Amino acid sequence: MNAAVFASGSGTNLEALLRREEAGDLDCHIDLVIVDQENAYARQRARQHGVEQHWIRPRDFSNKEEYETRILELLKAHDIQLIILAGYMRYIGQVLLQAYPYQIINIHPAYLPEFPGAHGIADAFDAKASQTGVTVHYVDAGVDTGPVILQERVAIDPKWDLETLEEHVHAKEYDLFYRAVNQAVREIQARS
Ligand code: GRF
């Protein structure tokens, strides 16, 4: 099964998945990377691993439908059956949701429904929570709301600063994401 990874930034989760694929631990093939930011380092990581990457600039399109229709052309050309959001800071619209029902998954750096939104790690830190976590879920029309595929806890040591908490949450992401991707692949195959 071919997968596409969408990213907006550094792409450390993309890197972790690419390494898992190269180690033979990923049950799909990452065939395409899509970014919405010209300077996203995820592009560099894709190049280093020999994966085709495209920067699709949203403001080149007059609305989200046209933007996603362009992305859909690329997805179809690459026979993509799974979309993996890995730090993609943009809501998914109806064009992609309808073309890929329960075939789009997202990683969130908290234990949903706790701490949704763009600052999951900092929000858990500011709340002085005793634990947080990582969630991988299917994407639906809500924000951080779709059915959970896999989620695991990270205990927070009250002595940690925000940076240390970020390190622990990211380490959990790299460990959990490929397992969640593999579970989604099995579920998508079982449905088709
Ligand atoms: C991750 O923490 C992910 O959970 C969140 O955005 C961050 C992306 O980091 N959605 P990176 O680009 O994979 O390094």
Q: What is the 3D form?
A: globular
Contiguous helical run count: 6
Ions, cofactors and other ligands present here are: 5-O-phosphono-beta-D-ribofuranosylamine
| Strands ordered across the widest β-sheet | 3-2-1-4-5-6-7
Q: How many strand units?
A: 7
The end-to-end distance, rounded to whole angstroms, is 12 Å
Instruction: Determine the strand fraction and express it as a percent band.
Output: 15-25%
Give start-end ranges of low-pLDDT stretches.
none
What characterizes the major β-sheet? Answer: 7 strands, mixed
Topology pattern, helix = H, strand = E: EHEHEHEHEHEEH
| Rg measurement, Å | 16 Å
Structural class: alpha/beta
The mean pLDDT is 97
Helix content class: 25-40%
